[in-house]
Structures are given as structure tokens and as C-alpha cells.
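Postdoc handover notes: sequence design on the structure in folder B. Input C-alpha cells:
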């Protein structure tokens, strides 16, 4: 059965080899063309466009990398330049080819993690593209319209704090606890951004780390493992992690060791340690791909906010006796 599935995928996607896809040569002269996401000792995960195939190593005869990989470019650079990624507002499966240490990744990714402030509190977030679109939790900005974002721009190896106050709510999903914001400051530079990974290909026990602002302590890094991928809470599935999550971490990224976001940290168990939770990145991708359905607009029936029109002075004057 597996061989038939592989052969079908190879026949349907043979044309991908012409545009620089990775190629997995299989037994019985079959092949898979796609983008390699993860390589492990016993299996390889390949994105073939409409799904991800996990191929056992003993079925693979040889692996041929794409031209982008041969030239030394990261997979993330190739994915980030594609028209599909730009149209989708985010860059998917664009981490580094091999796992790196948390120390290395924090230096590379720290500029993309931000602090989100409102009159009622603060949280974290992460930038999706150079134009300043970013993700945070809905509960971080709930009932707030006055929002500022603190970004830590990296210059000459040092981080310089910059506060942006022209921040617009683009879309929100109360039930998934997600919000999409946009920094609209006219003098804002191009922003460093992160890539969204795939939590489905992760395994329990894989190492992860979070960057955020717990209790306002900006750029705090915590490391742990993925405890479970399917923790059900209030009808939703969450990633559970031993990485420490505290108030202020909400909306921040949970990374794998390839530098990809695999979840959005949003809560913890109050009476316990090492019991943090994150929204799977697949929910974030769905939210972004269907952001028009969650647009922040009074005319949108799905909008959590409903504002009444202010009373008209003209109407009031006419109605007075």
C-alpha cells in the first residue's frame, strides 16, 4: 500500500523537479519530488504541496537536493522568495536545513520576537514578514484598540529597542485566541521575520524553546521538550511543553531547533510547573490563509467587537421640542 501511495505521488508531481525540488529516489524506480522538511535517522518528511509524506529510510535509495540547497542557501530563503509565500502573508517551512543550538537560534531570531503593550497589560508576539505583520494572542489585545509594539532591532550585534505606536488590528479569532496586527508607522524599517514550521511532523520528546516577555521581562528564553501534541482543553487541541510559560509570554513563539515557529504560547497551569501550552502552528496558518473571514470590521458578523454609532448632534437637535 505504501509503495502505491509513493508511486502515485511521484507520478503526479514529476514536474516539480524542473523548478528545483528535492528528489527522493525510491526502490522499484519510483521517486518523490518535493521539499524536504525534516530528516531523521529512520524517516524523512517531504512537503509535496497538498500534503506531507513521511518516508521510511529503508524505502529511500538516494536523495538529490535542489539547486537552492546546493548553492548553500537555507530552505527558508527559497521559500520566502516564492510568490505563494508572499501572497499568503507568511513564510512556511522556511527554517534552517539542520538543527542548531538554542544559543545560535536566539541570536538569529531574537529580533523577530516583539512585545505587545496595551493600557490593560502586555504580551508577546512575532513578526511574519518584513512589512510588519505580526501574530499575538487575542486575549492580549481583547477590548483594546490603543496598542503599541516594542521591537528589538539588531545593530552591530546589539539589540536596540524601538516602540511603534501606529499599530492596526487586521484580523482576530476569539475562539482560537489569535490576532493579526500590522505596524503602520511611516518611518518603520523592514522587519526581521520568522518562518512557520509544521508541528505535525514533530514527535513527543523533541526539544523546543520559547522567547517572550514573562512578567514584562523582555527577551526571556526558556527551553524544554514537547510533552504531548494533542492535549485537549476546552474543546481545542494544544501542544504541551515543559518550556516555562508565564503571563507576558502570551502570543510569543514556540520554536523547534530548526528555527521554525511550531506554536503560539498562550497559557499555563496555575498550580504546577513545566505545564505550558501553545496553539499549534497549523491553526495559525489556517487563520492567516482565511484572514478575510476574521477581518477586524464592524460590518463583519464574525468580529468580536461591535461598536454602536455615536449619537448625532443634528438628529438630537431636530428631536428636541
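Designed sequence:
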Amino acid at each position: 500500500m505504501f509503495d502505491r501511495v509513493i508511486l502515485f505521488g511521484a507520478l503526479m508531481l514529476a514536474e516539480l523537479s524542473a523548478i528545483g525540488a528535492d528528489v527522493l529516489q525510491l526502490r522499484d524506480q519510483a521517486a518523490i519530488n518535493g521539499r524536504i522538511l525534516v530528516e531523521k535517522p529512520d524517516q524523512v518528511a517531504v512537503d509535496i504541496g497538498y500534503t506531507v509524506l513521511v518516508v521510511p529510510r529503508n524505502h529511500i535509495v538516494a536523495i538529490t537536493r535542489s539547486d537552492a540547497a546546493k548553492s548553500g542557501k537555507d530552505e527558508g530563503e527559497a521559500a520566502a522568495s516564492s510568490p505563494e509565500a508572499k501572497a499568503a502573508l507568511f513564510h512556511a517551512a522556511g527554517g534552517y536545513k539542520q538543527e542548531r543550538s538554542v544559543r545560535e537560534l536566539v541570536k538569529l531570531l531574537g529580533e523577530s520576537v516583539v512585545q505587545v503593550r496595551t493600557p490593560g497589560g502586555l504580551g508577546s508576539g512575532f513578526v511574519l514578514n518584513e512589512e510588519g505583520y505580526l501574530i499575538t494572542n487575542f486575549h492580549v489585545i481583547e477590548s483594546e484598540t490603543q496598542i503599541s509594539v516594542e521591537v528589538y532591532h539588531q545593530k552591530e550585534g546589539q539589540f536596540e529597542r524601538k516602540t511603534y505606536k501606529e499599530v492596526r488590528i487586521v484580523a482576530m479569532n476569539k475562539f482560537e485566541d489569535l490576532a493579526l496586527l500590522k505596524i503602520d508607522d511611516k518611518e518603520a524599517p523592514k522587519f526581521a521575520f520568522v518562518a512557520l514550521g509544521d508541528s505535525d511532523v514533530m514527535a513527543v520528546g523533541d526539544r523546543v524553546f520559547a522567547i517572550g516577555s514573562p512578567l514584562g521581562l523582555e527577551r526571556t528564553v526558556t527551553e524544554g521538550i514537547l510533552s504531548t501534541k494533542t492535549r485537549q482543553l476546552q474543546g481545542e487541541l494544544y501542544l504541551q511543553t515543559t518550556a516555562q510559560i508565564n503571563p507576558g509570554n502570551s502570543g510569543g513563539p514556540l520554536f523547534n531547533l530548526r528555527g521554525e515557529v511550531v506554536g503560539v504560547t498562550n497559557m499555563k497551569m496555575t498550580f504546577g510547573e513545566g505545564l505550558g501550552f501553545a496553539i499549534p502552528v497549523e491553526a495559525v496558518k489556517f487563520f492567516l490563509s482565511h484572514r478575510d473571514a476574521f477581518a477586524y470590521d464592524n460590518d463583519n458578523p464574525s468580529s468580536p467587537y461591535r461598536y454602536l454609532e455615536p449619537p448625532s448632534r443634528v438628529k438630537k437637535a431636530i428631536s428636541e421640542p
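Context for whoever picks this up: Helices lie at 2-12, 67-70, 75-80, 83-87, 102-109, 138-141, 281-289, 313-319. Don't rerun without checking with the PI first.
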